[in-house]
Amino acid sequence: MAPIYQDYWIEHADGVATLRVGNTYLGRIESFWESPDGSRGVILGGRRVTFRIGIIDPQPMTDRDRFESTLDVDPEDWVQRLVYADFLEEQGEYEAAEGQRWQATKRRHPERMSGSFFWWHPRFRPVGPGNISRTLMGALGFHAASFACYPTRRDAEAALAQALGKVRASQQRGNQCG
Length: 178
Known about the structure:
This protein is of the alpha+beta class and 178 residues long. It has helices spanning 63-73, 78-90, 94-106, 134-139, 153-177; strands at residues 4-5, 8-13, 16-21, 24-34, 40-44, 47-51, 111-113, 116-120, 147-150. The protein folds into two domains: 4-61, no CATH class; 65-177, no CATH class. It contains five helices and nine strands.
C-alpha cells in the first residue's frame, strides 16, 4: 500500500519540486498523479505517495529511507554515499556497503534518462556518471550489450553491488588457483 499523508507541503526551488511531511524531507518529486476516486499524490523515489485528508501514514521514515531519499535528490553526494556505506556495513549489509563505497570512490552513479536508470558499457559511452567497466557489465549479465537499464536508481545500484560481489568472488577464486 502507498504511504498516505495528511500534513504535507511541496517546495519549489531551482525548478525542482520536493516533498516535506512535518519537518521531514521525503525527497524530489518525479511526477504528480490523480485517480478517479479523487485521491491525489506524487511519485517519489519510484514509489507512489498518496495524499488524503485525515489519514496519516503509520510508519515513520527509516534511516535507510533518509539516506536513499538524499541520494534520489543528489546522486553525486559522494560524502553521503560514504556515510551510507558505513551505515549499511553496521547493519551487516556488506555487499550494499561495498557498492556505495565503489560509487563514491569512482564517482559513478546510474545515469537517469527518460525515467529509467542506466549503467553504460565504456565502448558505447566512454564518459559519464553511468560508465562502468566491461567486467562489471558482464557481471550484471550484459556481456555484449551497450547498457543495462533499471526502473529505479535503487534497483540499478543493488544490481551493481551484486555485480561487484561476483567480480570479487571470481578474483578470489582466481587467486586460489595460481
